[in-house]
Structures are given as C-alpha cells and as structure tokens.
Amino acid sequence: MAEIKAEPFAFPVKHDQLALIVIDMQRDFAEPGGFGASLGNDVSRITRIVPDVKRLIQGFRNAGLPVIHTMECHRPDLSDLPPAKRDRGNPTLRIGDEGPMGRILISGEPGTAILPALAPVKGEVVIEKPGKGAFYATEFGEVLQRKGIRQLVFAGVTTEVCVQTTMREANDRGYECLLAEEATESYFPEFKAAAIAMIRAQGAIVGWTAHVDDILESIA
Ligand code: TIU
C-alpha cells in the first residue's frame, strides 16, 4: 500500500480518493487592514507560508488531483452572521464593517478574496463558509461525496481555528485527514504547535501531520 511519511505513523494514501483542502488563505487574514489585523494579530506570520501552500497546490494540480478552496465569509445582509460571532473578540473592525479592503469578511469584497498567489483556477471548487468549520451551512460534504473523496490533505489558516475545526468535523464524518505542517499557520506559534500535537495525539485521534516535501513526493 502507498504511504506518506507522517506522524504519528505513515498515512495510508489512496490517490484516487485524495484531495487538497486549502482553508481561508484570504487577504482578510493575511494583509494589514483585514479581519486578522483588526483582532490585533501580526498578519506577517500568515504571508510567510504562501510559498509552501503554493507548491502544495501546484503539486496537486500537476498530479491531476482535486484542489478545493474555502473562504470564511458572510452574506452582505449579514443574515448568516450570528450576533454571537459578530460581537466576539473586541476587534477594531467587526465583520460587515467597511475597512480599507471593503467590508470585512463579506462575500465579493476585495479583502475577502483569496490571496492572488494562491487564487483558484478554472474548475476548482471554492466553498464560502459562514462558520469556522467548512461543513456547517455549506455544500462541502456533498462536493466531497460526489467526487468520491475520502482522504483530505489540509493547508491554510489558522491552524487551531478554521483548519482544526474542519479537520475535526471531517474526522467525525469518516474522512482520513492529514495536515501539511509548513503549509498551515497561526497568529500564535504556540497554538500551531499545540494544534499539531493534539491532532496526532493518541494514535491520530483527529488525523495525521506530515511535511510538505513528503506529501509532494507521494503524489509526484
Ligand atoms: N480562518 C480562520 O481561522 N478564522 C479565524 O477567525 N481565525 C482566527 O484565528 N482568528
């Protein structure tokens, strides 16, 4: 059986069931003036992983394997934004407010877009999600089922919020999940390290973690 070198043990890869899930690599989390910065975070940590996310995406495209992108965002009328989410975090700009890149985390606004270097290409699915997890109130689950995808490689931000939430949701639904370590980041290095440790603890309780080079080698 084909394997990807991973922790806590080798990931038993089935290439015909494998997809790359790129979580929320949006300007709002990576550029000054966006949502991440409004929460008081150093967004330069996020931009540093762009080259590793890019080569992972390119590897999947070259191998003819699916790449699915997610975007955290809300409808312009905020009907999918619970007050409990809008009011959280004491940010300088709340979701839906007008910022330097348009309205914060609103579908179609410039700041909500995926970073140009990682932009989806024709044919790639983009899931707009109102939650931290990609399954809640989206068509993500149906898309995976329709495409026969059962194994998910994860990249994107932030490790302990939207990436980990989606991995946990996927794990409960029976998907085998592998996190690409250099292709994910948090505003807090200690949270990234803790999320990686939690995910692969107890015999891969939520999933596996692997290095980008080892993932790329297996799909080359
Ligand atoms: N995409 C994602 O992780 N959304 C967040 O709000 N993350 C934070 O860490 N704030």
From TrEMBL:
Query: Where do the Isochorismatase-like domain residues begin and end?
Result: 19-207
Keyword vocabulary terms for this entry:
Hydrolase
Q: Which PANTHER family match?
A: FAMILY HYDROLASE, PUTATIVE (AFU_ORTHOLOGUE AFUA_2G08700)-RELATED, PEROXYUREIDOACRYLATE/UREIDOACRYLATE AMIDOHYDROLASE-RELATED
In its UniProt entry, the species of origin is given as Rhizobium viscosum
Q: What is this protein called?
A: Nicotinamidase-related amidase
Please tell me whether the keyword Hydrolase is annotated for this protein: yes
Q: Give a yes or no for keyword Hydrolase in this entry.
A: yes
- Pfam families for this protein: Isochorismatase (PF00857)
| CDD domains in the cross-refs | cysteine_hydrolases
Superkingdom: Bacteria
InterPro entries, sorted = Isochorismatase-like_dom, Isochorismatase-like_hydrls, Isochorismatase-like_sf
